Amino acid sequence: MNKNRRQFIKQVTTATLASAFSTQALADDTLDPFNLQEWRDNQINSPDKHHDILILGAGISGLCVAYELSKLGVNFQMLEARSKPGGRNETLRHGSEIEEFDRTSYCEFNRDKHLYFNVGPARISHHHERVLRYCKELSITLEPLINDNRNTFFSIDGAFNNTPIKAKELYTSQRGLIASTLAQAIEQNLVSHLLPAQHNDHMLKMLTSFGDLDSNYQFSGSIRAGAEANSGVFTPPQAQPSKDFTQVLPHLDKWARRIHFEQSKDQQAAMLQPVGGMDRIVKGFIRNIPKKIRYNSEVLSIKRVKSGSEVTFRNKQGVIKKMTAAQIVVTLPLTVLQDIDHDFSAPIAQEIQNANYTSAGKIAFQSERFWETHEHIYGGISWLGSDNTQLWYPSSGFGRESGVIVGGYIFDGPAGERFANLSNQERVDSALTQMQHVHPEAAEYTYNACSRSWKNTPFSKGGWSSNPPIVEFSHQDGPYIFAGDHTTYLSGWQEGAIASAHRALELLSLD
Amino acid sequence: MNKNRRQFIKQVTTATLASAFSTQALADDTLDPFNLQEWRDNQINSPDKHHDILILGAGISGLCVAYELSKLGVNFQMLEARSKPGGRNETLRHGSEIEEFDRTSYCEFNRDKHLYFNVGPARISHHHERVLRYCKELSITLEPLINDNRNTFFSIDGAFNNTPIKAKELYTSQRGLIASTLAQAIEQNLVSHLLPAQHNDHMLKMLTSFGDLDSNYQFSGSIRAGAEANSGVFTPPQAQPSKDFTQVLPHLDKWARRIHFEQSKDQQAAMLQPVGGMDRIVKGFIRNIPKKIRYNSEVLSIKRVKSGSEVTFRNKQGVIKKMTAAQIVVTLPLTVLQDIDHDFSAPIAQEIQNANYTSAGKIAFQSERFWETHEHIYGGISWLGSDNTQLWYPSSGFGRESGVIVGGYIFDGPAGERFANLSNQERVDSALTQMQHVHPEAAEYTYNACSRSWKNTPFSKGGWSSNPPIVEFSHQDGPYIFAGDHTTYLSGWQEGAIASAHRALELLSLD
User: Fold this and answer.
1) What is the CA B376 to chain-centroid distance, rounded?
2) Closest to B399 (Cβ–Cβ): which among A142, A171, A260?
3) CB-based contact (8 Å) between A254 and chain B?
4) Beta bridge partners of residue B103, listed in sequence order
5) Structure confidence by residue, pLDDT tens digits, B14-37
6) Could you give the domains of chain B?
7) What is the pTM of this model?
8) What is the ipTM of this complex?
9) Given CB atoms, is B491 within the 8 Å cutoff of chain A?
């Protein structure tokens, strides 16, 4: 435990903490919460010494560590295998190079600022407070990202004659089925042992409103699911015929999570994104880090030596180099560490062996905005029954000539494997075929496709870890300190990467 | 029926219509749908003649009629009682004058572009296709308006010890109560007559996912309602203790509609707004209308004469003037028509007598963005139990120094009456007291308040009509053609105003 950690815990116990942290006992294992401002203040009062720190990987966690050390004027070195920073925080736009193991291509979108594709993380939750704090500190402008839009489609294979239905039809018919069944049970006095009697009338009133039931507690359609065309303006709104949600019931293993997606902890109907691309966060960090990052430096081995650890890497010219440091911050994905000769402790080594990453991938097209003009879809996601899973509509640039539509966000294992193995042209053809199930006109309007399979991407080899983190990631392992979203329960989220960076800062000895 | 209408219906019956209109039979009474492009095309082929048209009122419906006539080069005249166009489409910003019957004040927001207050309409639904069409045609940039945000508050008087709870706690506990009650009823075989037997297991699976139930089909809290502080990053997420939704049940008369607000037809979680203020739509129309609008012209009487109708009005200098026209488009609110001497047909006159308008009002403050820094609220609405009903957080300018928070959107009758009668200072004091129930720190950060009661506003005298429109608004009444949102089932929405304008265009004789 270093000085700052000790000071921090002392401050906790003397109850000087900001209110945000005051209600929780500290779990020693977790090193959470971390009070960044206090940490910064304490470090600024330390004497300026030579600090022998090496950061491996210039993704979000590595950049965050580097940024905080830079603010303090603390020395460090940094190795990055790619030719650019950011890791999976990658925004493709005109001219971006897209390298995978077996191919190199370029993004051919026009040059317009609004034509970009966040091929890695693409949304920020309001409770991802660490990311939001840096966005504010780095003057990164945020705008809403529409994540759930009831005017998009669900294409549930096996239901509704395989015809896509609107999200509002699905949600409304589900509420109608649930509410009408329970309301009838209450009215027939079947559940009086489950509900205090005084609630019966209230429950009936609530269910009628919740499910938009008729006076017999039946669900017979609702204008919440959409009004008939040409009704509701000069004549009263007429509900369209209701969908029968029981058609979805046999398909819940696949669809339950998708239907309740907007309810989940890290997803909300409206989220946030940086104006102009998620890599504004990368650029924000980079602007404030001295030019210490050695790009094109692929780590080959990491071994303990007397003075700490020695890292062997190959530079752009293919020359093998070595670097030693007393403390090494290891942010590389577990899949990448599998290929590196290391001497980490047994639990870490085992965890690297066990690594299980999603085969996430995305494909996007520049396109005329047919989803706006034809379907009145402004942002949000349509759900496919096929491999490509999600279509994302842009949340900005409404009404412009063109936009970028994500024609597939694949994150389920086998689908991701298949996507990885397709050629670029096969990915385009397959995506268009799948999009046409929801938007028959898609091929007419889309062009300039680009895609990435993270599984097939060097120095990532997968989307994010599906395993929960082991507790050993929370502790120093000799000269090694581990960071990266995979070392947290926020795997796949930038918030996890930054939280892990803060933990690494706490573990680093700067005495 | 004029020539265009006849042509239009002919085209309908010969099945040359765009697909959007192809599935609906035309109800002759409603004059809906209106194919704007066909109307425009037909008119362009008409000979250029002198057309004797007078439009009363330069709100959205009057401006839309004027815009379409201007595009065709058709002559018209226009009277507006205010000194500016737009009617209730009003955006307050630095220096805006706010006139009510008993007071005149000025908006004191700083000059920044993002500091504005849509004191009238403030959101556009994705299915308000007529408004969206004009936004596109007039190059009005749109951005998302976050209408429902699960991180805002519900302050339900009488429940939870009168302590505000987060929307996500409310929604999640409601789903939990409904799902757990029904799931137990299914498991106990109590509702087998209500559901086909083959669905039982599926329903249990669905309800477990829908309500986030435990393995005993109980709702015992959910991380959807928020995780415990400091859990979910280095330790698994822990659900906060769940709220008991039965506390809300006795209060549903007031709260059911509010809780299910985001489900309703014209509301969605994410909607749209023009960047920089709703009055961009007004400016868009005005840019394309010749300077024919006579402002400061208060209509006093409307009477039939041989050549059509004679309108008497008072100009800015107090001089009484007269103007005659063959056709008069009357867009004035029914409340305003009550004060005008007219000779409309009996049903219209009766409807004007019966006019019943909401007493809507709003108050806003410039403020430091404490809701973002303290509560991580980015856009959306909090619901108060007191008069001021809704707090709106801005959906743009995230992270900036200041923003505009709507400290009250009042639309319930008695509350609106009370708001109308308060002095400006009383409105501010009352709003702060009410905001402090949800945000105790509100008074510390807010300043530069401005407010408007539409009830107390000359030439509006209310928010919008609460009565359904009578069918007579769909027909010509001698020289009179009626328009305005109050003549449609979309009362209070700009979409209704524009639909009514299109109907007026159809009824106008341009032969």
Assistant:
1) 26
2) A142
3) no
4) B100
5) 333 333 333 333 333 444 568 888
6) 3-86+280-356+461-507 (3.50.50.60), 91-152+359-453 (3.90.660.10), 167-247 (1.20.1440.240)
7) 0.92
8) 0.91
9) no
